[in-house]
Amino acid sequence: MPSYKKSLVLCSILLLLNGCGIKLLNDENKDISKTTFTEVKTKPYNLENQYIILALESENQKLYNDAISLYFKLFENTNNYEYLVKYLTLSTNVKDFASVKKYASKYVIENTKEEEIILRLYIYSLFKLNEKEEAIKNGEKLIANYKNEINYQLLGSIYLEDKEYLKAYELFELSYELTNSSNTLLTLTNIQFNNLLEKDKAIKKLENHIQMSGYDFNLSIQLLSFYEKENEKDKLIALLKNMYFYYKNSDNQFLLNKTKILFIKYVARDNINNAIVFLEENNEEDENLLNLYKITNQSQKADDLLGRLYKSTDNLDYLAQQAILKFEMTSDKESVLDDVISKFNKVLENGSNHIYENYLAYILIDYNIDIKRGLVLVKKALIVEPNNIAYIDTLAWGEYKLKNCKEAYIQMKRVVDEVGIDDEEIKLHWEQIKECKE
User: Fold this and answer.
1) Is the pTM higher than 0.85?
2) How far is residue 382's CA from residue 361's CA, in Å, rounded to a whole number?
3) Is there a contact between 121 and 151 (Cβ–Cβ < 8 Å)?
4) Cα separation of 393 and 413, whole Å?
5) pLDDT tens digits for 96-106?
């Protein structure tokens, strides 16, 4: 089975069983008001309270096997089916499906308050034991007696695993009609698109739900993937823009950021300038726009943005990036040395960063400003990354400038042995260091 189908089945069933505690309670409360259940007579047990305390404490300590034994002991001695449900639930959680199958089938009684959850756990154990035919038979019985979204999804997931896609779809559709749940629609449209090949209908169903209920992120991503598979670029971009404005208006910064990243991924792939224009028009001055400026070599815009980002956040990383950018984009580098060094000094006064330490070290050494300080900085950087070739090159160049020729040669040879001399700067350093005389 393709991986996405396996994930679909697994996620569906895990959601059912993990969520059944709360949902079951709600279902039972609704049923109690409408149904007269068969009453199971319980027995008194003088150690009941002590066993309950021990069982709960075992659960809290994650001693699940001990808790399982205690709950079964409680059930045997009291005939209280709430303890049987606890036993079966915990046994399911520890994957003891054989025991769940055995005791659920042995003790289930029709029309009791606990019948539904016991049947549900029994069916799941059959499914995990690969007894699909029996699981389906009991699943049909379950939905005949208890028509709710959890039971439809449980049986639907078994049919999906069994590649009975139409039956699975019909059951998830019944569940969706009851709850209008986004999670259910996710599975429903996945089956419709990928298995039943009703691609237009799946897309329309997602579009309608989103239009009525808002841009649930997972559903939006599903629709996005469908548009991509169908090569619907215009619809894809329109969806991303709608998601962007929806999350921005709802002040959901987390989903807004994720959407911006997706927008850049899809739009910049075809036309990076369109992505830049959109971000600029919507005043999205952040790392995304900064990276796009860097990619397109818009150095001045990047420099200006870094200045604004630093001013608004006091994040020294922006100041360091601005120093690097200013140095690299200026042809007359000596004219900006004072400003660049000043920025790096401010950054490194407030914390250590091996990248910036090496960068400043190289400037101080290469321009003969403060070679000794440059060596101190690069040696500090090398403590963090002792095998970084760029840092070793800086060290070798500093030793050369101080006429420590032997040490310069040793360090530079490490660089050349590792990467060769294709790089012009490495070649220049190597040639000069080889001629060095103390």
Assistant:
1) no
2) 12
3) no
4) 9
5) 999 999 999 99
